[in-house]
Design brief:
Length: about 375
Amino acid sequence: MKIGIPKEISEGERRVAIVPNMAAKLKKAGHDILVESDAGEAAFFSDSEYEQAGATIVADAQSLYPEADLIMKIWPPEKHEVEMMKPGSTYIGFMAPTSRLDIIRQMNRMNITSFAMEFIPRIARSQSMDALSSMASIAGYRAVLMATQHLGKFFPLMMTAAGTIPPAKVLILGAGVAGLQAIATARRLGASVEAFDTRPAVREQVESLGAQFTEMELVENAETSGGYAKEMSDKFLKKEREIIGSRIAQNNVVITTAQVFGEKAPILITGEMVKQMKKGSVIIDLAAEQGGNCELTEAGKNVVKHDITICGKMNLPATLPIDASRMYSRNITTFYRHLYKTLYKTRDGGLDFEDEITKNTCITHKGEVVNKIVKKLLRKEEQTRD
Ligand code: NAD
């Protein structure tokens, strides 16, 4: 099997899907590894390191895509990238499967078997494949460092000859993967941290990191039977905003990470609430890409409104390209190994659709869209077109 690693072309992207030591492991497992020249350059992995790992450097994307039996990538492929893929080949990477239906149709027409990294279920045995969690953890860490840059105040308590300065107060909204990493990072920097989440189950994790968990009387169940966050009613969100509103003015930094998978981010901070914050405070809105948890967030931008800096910067993992590439590389390789192992479980040597990880992630296979969620979206799109 020839595995192709193209250079990412999305603007500002510095990560690469496979780092040299993972390329060496895949090579040892019997695969040929083709790496587009300079694919790892922005993450400081040179072509010569890939060559030492046993990979072959290929001059450009036009020579790489048609040669590869399997493409491993980070960003969903663009139309011209899919056009270059070998018909009948395999793709693994993020796919934005609910929004890039055009790309999914194109892949299907070319009989490409595709797997979306976003759809790896958050279950114990797939933890080491969960790239969304790896990247969210990086974003949580980076969010705190960004806040330190914009806040005109120390994070830790400082006892100086010029007096004692109290620690910064940080409020984290949403204590999932990104939120917990943000709590841990802000605590390491000495801030006083308070966190809030609709799932009471996270209280213990929040407290074990040395932060205070803000209690809210739950008028409705916030969790699905599987323990995932549920989309909350308008009535609930109104009550929640009142509670956050009563806390927000006491904090110097607010980091928002609240989301329910596949839904628009809930608005937890209104423009009026921003006005009540102390001048010079900072909001880092990690949900900017899903519409933002703050009403005044502008996706991809840092803006100052009512003397509050609001950061809606996206793709924070690309700002830590070395470790982000290492983590993604391990996630995608572990996932690939899982697929490879299960290939032999079925009678025809095909994919094992009894397996939850394979079933969830496979989008197109043998000229068919096999994923339930994507199938439904395609049907809906066709109906509205008719
Ligand atoms: P997650 O699902 O692990 O955590 C989200 C948390 O929000 C959950 O604990 C959930 O219970 C909580 N939540 C949901 N609705 C809420 C509400 N109304 N009030 C309070 N809490 C609520 O998600 P994650 O992987 O930690 O990602 C968090 C956010 O960070 C997402 O929006 C994700 O897209 C974003 N993200 C941004 C970047 C970036 O570069 N900007 C990178 C990775 C992730």
